[in-house]
Amino acid sequence: MGSAKYNRRVAPRKEVSPIHISYLTSLDDFAKIAKNCEIVEASSTGLLLLIKRDDLIPTALRKNLTLDVLIGDRVFMHLEEMNLEISGVITRTQLLGKKGFYVAVDYSEEAPEYWRECLMDLLPKPGELD
Known about the structure:
Blueprint: H1 4-7, E1 14-26, E2 32-42, E3 46-51, H2 59-62, E4 74-79, E5 84-95, E6 101-107, H3 113-122
Antiparallel strand pairs: 1-2, 1-4, 2-3, 3-6, 4-5, 5-6
């Protein structure tokens, strides 16, 4: 992860009020990767998810200190509050110690830029849903 290509940010990030993702699923074999994740930041290019270790579904992932095996996986997720399905590709992962992991998902190429920017505007800022 020290490589510059993993840390390149293309669009400014927006901190969002945590949006609940009921599941994160692989598009390749439809296996569920995680449940009950949260979107903690968003940009017009992708989302940053917080996944707690206990919410990882494959036990092999729960035992690892890295989720780098997921980089490049095509995934889709269900945003519960917005009743919306979004697909993308996992581009980065980062261990946060006991808190779990950050997982960055870039939107699929099929998602038009206009749609991605509208979604970013619709995601609530911290405190907006309280």
